[in-house]
Write a structure and sequence with these properties.
Largest sheet: 8 strands, antiparallel, barrel
Distance between the termini: 123 Å
Strand content: 25-35%
Number of strands: 14
Strand order of the largest sheet: 1-3-4-5-6-8-9-10
């Protein structure tokens, strides 16, 4: 194949690729809107793609280096690829391509006049890195740049023509020796390219790949040992995204735009507003629990007398404690201040009939000092734990009365015995009434 024929062939191939691209774009239906999430995983995208390509093969690379032949030709190459996109910016691609590579030494007059290597196949696995996935200028990407690198195996047959016209066909020589027909060598493909979005399913790719062969026999000549041979493949091709139409192609997803849309999602905003309302309701409920309308120190929900007078002395239930009026002369009384104080069933509220006893005890403590122990008791109805709490509440009611009447709080010790120390049988109501009591003793 001469250079003019090659140019015509490559031009025809590119025209055919562009034509197929235009047809695919015209027939491709609009992509279904996707509900893909930023951290939703690969399953929500199309990640497999199949590509076809054609271009030119040459025994040189742009990075330079030693070549066994001074002049080189361009020849047609073609191949296919299969890629799995593992993320927005990285994928794995399998490539297979074929073609012919040739060159000559006609202008130099070297011993070997020309070579022509038939590339039976070159197969490799490459990592593909997209370097333009995140776009801050547009919501949707339409152009991606990529770089590739990998490892592969090539099978080829060099045919060398010496200056005297002798032709050496490596395949024939190897078959005569009983070896495999084709030379097989590993190679390292390194390349870069640009991808244009034609539609959500089709892209048009331009790529340049340098292939570094692990040997010096790709051109059939060991001329500059120990240098290894190399060749390049410049290609254009189409890539087709595989999978469900309902999923977007991961190649063209801009994660920045996805994150913006997810944050602006009306349903998410509604959830946030609903959460704010729930928090506000909880805060209001807490404030309602703390509300004390009459300022007596007892929250409204526990206050049995929610409208007590300002400054009134109240008990634990918010009821105003009414102290007897002080008189200049008092009739002799037989109250000692240590009488037993009785309580109603399941109640820790002081009865008015206990006030004289408490007033006497308060007077004694304020005038003479000293300390007393207030012991609360309960009958056996309910659980032992509840009765223990109730007995302590009854003892604290007595202490509160004494403190509010002027007794120093440190002078009154409080104990609760629950139902453990009855003074009468709990089998009868009369006995249980006697057990609902508080007893005061001097320390």
């Amino acid at each position: 194949m001469n250079y003019s024929t090659l140019k015509k062939g490559v031009a025809a191939s590119l025209v055919a690729l562009v034509g197929v691209t235009s047809l695919a774009s015209a027939q491709d239906a609009p992509a279904t809107s996707s509900s893909a999430k930023v951290f939703g995983g690969r399953a929500q995208y199309r990640t497999w793609s199949l590509g076809v390509n054609a271009g030119v093969l040459a025994p040189v690379v742009v990075t330079g280096g030693a070549n066994d032949y001074s002049n080189w030709d361009v020849n047609l190459g073609y191949g296919i690829s299969l890629r799995k996109q593992l993320g927005h910016a990285f994928g794995l691609e399998a490539n297979v391509f074929r073609g012919k590579v040739s060159g000559n030494n006609e202008k130099v007059g070297a011993p070997n006049n020309m070579f022509e290597t038939e590339l039976q196949y070159a197969a490799d696995i490459r990592g593909v890195v997209n370097v333009a996935t995140v776009d801050f200028l547009r919501r949707e990407n339409s152009v991606n740049f990529f770089v590739t690198a990998g490892y592969g195996l090539a099978a080829y047959n060099p045919i060398v023509t010496a200056s005297n016209g002798t032709v050496t066909n490596w395949k024939t020589v190897k078959e005569a020796r009983g070896d495999d027909s084709y030379v097989k060598q590993a190679y390292i493909p390194v390349g870069a390219g640009i991808k244009f979005k034609v539609s959500d399913r089709v892209s048009f790719n331009l790529a340049y790949t340098m292939n570094f062969v692990d040997g010096d026999n790709f051109d059939g000549t060991y001329a500059k040992i120990p240098s290894n041979d190399k060749f390049s493949y410049t290609s254009a091709g189409l890539e087709f995204s595989l999978g469900s139409k309902s999923k977007p192609n991961l190649d063209w997803v801009n994660p920045l735009a996805m994150m913006y849309d997810e944050l602006k999602d009306p349903s998410l905003r509604q959830e946030v507003e609903a959460l704010k309302n729930r928090v506000a309701n909880v805060e209001k409920s807490v404030e309602d629990l703390k509300k004390d309308s009459d300022g007596d120190g007892v929250a409204d929900m526990f206050d049995k007398e929610p409208n007590s007078a300002p400054g009134a002395v109240v008990d634990g239930s918010g009821r105003t404690i009414k102290f007897p009026e002080q008189t200049t002369t008092t009739a002799p009384s037989s109250v000692t201040g240590f009488e037993t104080i009785q309580f109603e069933f399941n109640s820790s509220v002081l009865k008015t009939e206990s006030y004289p006893t408490l007033d006497k005890l308060s007077s004694m403590l304020r005038e003479n000092g000293g300390k007393v122990t207030v012991a609360g008791h309960a009958s056996s109805e309910g659980t032992a734990a509840y009765n223990m709490k109730l007995s302590k509440d009854r003892a604290n009611s007595v202490k509160t009365y004494l403190v509010n009447s002027g007794v120093n709080a440190s002078s009154v010790a409080v104990k609760g015995y629950g139902e453990t120390r009855p003074i009468a049988s709990n089998d009868t109501e009369e006995g249980r009434i006697q057990n609902r009591r508080v007893e005061t003793t001097r320390n």
